[in-house]
Amino acid sequence: MKTNTIGFIGGGNMASSLLSGLIASGHSPKQLWVSDINQETLSSLAANLQVNITSSNDEVINHSDVVVLAVKPQALQLVAKNAAALIKQRQPLVVSIAAGITQNSLIEWLGNDTAIVRCMPNTPALVLTGATALHANDRVTAEQRDLAENILRSVGIALWVELESELDTVTAVSGSGPAYYFLLMEAMEKVAVELGLSEATARLLVQQTALGAAKIALESSESPEQLRKRVTSPGGTTQQAIETFQQGGFAELVAKAIHAARDRSIEMSKHTGNS
Fold it and tell me: Running DSSP on this structure, what letter comes out for residue 122?
């Protein structure tokens, strides 16, 4: 990976996180390029990360083996169409992190011969603990798959899905998922304050408990169900709370929410960026 030059079209938060992750994993800033319409964004990236900056998307493409499309979904069609001729000439791997933009749309804008990896990173990538699913079209070589995976692994875990349609479920689970945990944390903190804890104490306890639970789950070979049962003593406080959740239809509500998010992702993909 260290011998490949990677260019980013768009220098926002996710691009900045990926650049930071690549540098932390050993990629030379000299082999990283970024273009953006905002000069302040470019200046900040150059100052903080020492990467190459430009206002020209063509310059990024001309220098890059991999081009990461990191602009907002609503801007991607124009960016892609303007870049199509040069991408066809240069034939870099194109990695899109734009939510809701299908590979069919990207192929329509960039050309049938374009090697495309579409991926769905989530916001914890901003603190290098992201979860990303990737899908490659049939133009992507094994070497390019490894390269795309390494780029996304620089900000967390990265895994492949067999079908592009699975990215809608990924969106509902890990893409939107951080907000679900924030919602639970928000509710727990509110009740803790109502029961007499200070806001600072309640927040820290909730945050550290969430971190600890996630760490145990990641490091254990047991399922979440097994872990839950392990910390639930018969007749104790935890069992009382768990039974209250279950009696309130917790699992059914989670299922309903994730189905709704998946369905919305499918709906948005049909309209966002498709011409």
Answer: -
Strands in the chain per DSSP E: 6-9, 32-35, 52-54, 66-69, 93-96, 115-120, 130-136, 156-160
Residue 131 domain boundaries:
6-167
Same domain, 18 and 72: yes
Task: Of 35, 31, 32, give the one whose Cα is nearest residue 12.
Answer: 35
Residues 87 and 190 in one domain: no
Kindly calculate the radius of gyration of the chain based on its CA atoms and give it in whole angstroms.
Answer: 21
The pTM of the full predicted model, rounded to 2 decimals, is 0.89
188 with 252, same domain? yes
* Res 268: pLDDT: 85
Q: Collapsing DSSP states into helix, strand and coil, what is residue 96?
A: strand
C-alpha–C-alpha distance, residues 179 and 13, integer Å: 18
**Higher confidence at residue 115 or residue 268?**
115
Same domain for 179 and 229, yes or no, is yes
120, β-bridge pairs: 133
* CATH value at residue 16: 3.40.50.720
SS3 per-residue string spanning 67-93: EEECCCHHHHHHHHHHHHHHHHHHCCE
What's residue 270's pLDDT?
A: 83
Instruction: Output the average pLDDT for the chain.
Output: 95
Query: Does 84 lie in the same domain as 213?
Result: no
Please count the other Cβ atoms lying within 10 Å of the Cβ belonging to residue 242. Answer: 16
pLDDT tens, position by position, 38-88: 999 999 999 999 999 999 999 999 999 999 999 999 999 999 999 999 999
Task: Please give the distance of CA 112 from its chain centroid, rounded to a whole number.
Answer: 26
